[in-house]
Amino acid sequence: SWRTIKPVFKNKTPSCQNACPVGNDIEGWIRLIQKGEYEKAYWHLKREEPFPSVLGRVCFRFCEEACNRNPLDECVGIGALERFIGDYGASCGPHPDLPEYNGKSLAVVGSGPAGMSAAYFGRLLGFRVVIFEALPVMGGILRVGIPGYRLPREVVAAEFEKLAAMGIELQPGTAVGEDISFKEIGNRYDYIFLATGAHGSKKLGIDGEDESRRIMSGLELLRNVALGEDVTCGKRVAVIGGGNTAIDVARTVLRMGSDVTLIYRRSEEEMPANPEEVMEAREEG
């Protein structure tokens, strides 16, 4: 019946942009892609979303769910286009709109997505920016909380190379409170942005949870694997939970050679994990 439907054009915010948490001008940069103006599309996208090569891989694409084409056939592949243009940007030159320094400095504590974004936009406002990261690698939860099969390490590293090229100073392996005091940061920099992340796992509150060597939190396992530490899981592993971290852990442990069972208290339809991730986990075994 769609052949008989007449389009109605309204001058309003596109539904995909409305559904995007950061309000990306999705229509704008896709039109530039249509014209073959890839570099313009890349910089247009980075006005609101500074790391398209990352988000093009890990975002759950609320925009596609709201796409106007859904009632007709299927949504526009916005996530795939974002990934494409983000990877294309790896070959683009320096940022074309870098302002002169404004005489103020900004210290960012934590190099996860919040810290990266604060550093990026802080530099575009003219601040001299430094990022302190306690881990030996930059990227926070992107680097040690998302498995490499979903977000390759080199993609995250490339984004930090671009931040460094903007003049942002990177200090991995620098723990605030140990390697440098908070007071010293306050004396040295005009502004401080705290982006210490969400690296803590919820607990079940059961006996032996903190003592048993056979029990490990999901985020701890993902971090140890990401940092190349020796992780032994045994032949059979139970993953308790139904969120995205549980799925990431289950697929990671499976790839390490263990038989995995995921245990969740409600039905599969009620699992908070992204349905696509659940489907891929089932297909993987």
What can you see in these coordinates?
Helix 4 (52-58) runs antiparallel to helix 6 (78-88). This protein is flat. It is of the alpha/beta class and 285 residues long. Helix 7 (113-124) links the parallel strand 1 and strand 2 (128-132). It has 13 helices and six strands.
Mind sketching the topology for me?
Elements: H1 15-19, H2 26-34, H3 38-45, H4 52-58, H5 62-65, H6 78-88, E1 105-109, H7 113-124, E2 128-132, H8 141-144, H9 153-165, E3 169-171, H10 182-188, E4 191-194, H11 218-226, E5 236-240, H12 244-255, E6 259-263, H13 275-284
Parallel strand pairs: 1-2, 1-4, 2-3, 5-6
Helix pairs in contact: 2-3, 4-6, 11-12, 12-13
Strand order of the largest sheet: 3-2-1-4
Q: List how many beta strands DSSP finds.
A: 6
Uncertain regions spanning at least 5 consecutive residues? none
Tally the helices: 13
Which sequence of SSEs, written as H and E, runs from N to C? HHHHHHEHEHHEHEHEHEH
Which structural category fits the helices and strands?
alpha/beta
* Major pleated sheet: 4 strands, parallel
- Gyration radius from CA atoms, angstroms: 22 Å
Approximately how much helix is present in the residues?
A: 25-40%
Tell me the strand percentage band: 5-15%
Mean pLDDT: 94
List keywords for this structure.
285 residues; alpha/beta; flat; 6 strands
